């Protein structure tokens, strides 16, 4: 019985260490601007960046979302909440472009309307060939509908 408890404890510690690494990676790919550190500290503790990157809210809607998260237990004082809302509204507001060289799968699907298969192809291509420089580079990605890319080119940033 004691050895199974040790195994479970080891598994739990190992899993928590594995989860800590992606959180750091998630924060690294967020756009650099004021409030990034607070978002990384407060939001990525519970959510991966894809959770909020795929949302496109105006400032009032972000205030509602942040207030809801604080009501649910997120630890952020008034100053931190203002920094979070400012960051999210600037980088993930209604008219914010999708950052093609750091966008996760969910953002590609929701914002660009790509299928999961097409989104995976974009991520694989980006990993294999490096960052995209312009929207036309996405036309080189196999299995991605060129019409979708061209139709959403104004929503992309590189």
What does this protein look like?
The termini are far apart. The chain folds into 2 domains: 23-92, Orthogonal Bundle (Cytochrome Bc1 Complex, Chain D, domain 2), CATH 1.10.760; 98-157, AF1531-like domain (DNA polymerase, domain 1, Orthogonal Bundle). It is mostly helical. The protein contains 8 helices and 2 strands. The radius of gyration is 18 Å and the shape is elongated. Strands 1-2 form a two-stranded parallel sheet. Helix 1 runs antiparallel to helix 2.
Give the helix/strand layout.
Blueprint: H1 2-28, H2 36-42, H3 49-53, H4 59-71, H5 78-92, E1 98-99, H6 105-112, H7 116-129, H8 146-151, E2 156-157
Helix pairs in contact: 1-2, 4-5, 6-7
Quick summary:
The protein is mainly α. It has 8 helices and 2 strands.
């Amino acid at each position: 019985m004691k050895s199974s408890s040790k195994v479970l404890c080891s598994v739990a510690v190992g899993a928590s260490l594995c989860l800590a690494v992606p959180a750091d990676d998630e924060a690294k790919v967020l756009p650099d601007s004021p409030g990034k550190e607070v978002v990384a500290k407060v939001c990525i503790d519970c959510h991966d960046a894809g959770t909020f990157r795929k949302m496109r809210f105006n400032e009032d809607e972000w205030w509602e979302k942040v207030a809801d998260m604080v009501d649910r237990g997120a630890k952020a004082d008034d100053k931190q909440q203002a920094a979070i809302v400012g960051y999210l509204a600037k980088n993930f507001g209604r008219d914010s472009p999708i950052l093609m060289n750091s966008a996760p799968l969910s953002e590609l699907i929701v914002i660009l309307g790509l299928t999961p298969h097409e989104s995976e192809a974009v991520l694989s291509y980006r990993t294999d060939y490096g960052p995209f420089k312009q929207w036309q580079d996405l036309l080189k990605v196999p299995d991605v509908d060129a019409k979708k890319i061209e139709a959403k080119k104004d929503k992309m940033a590189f």
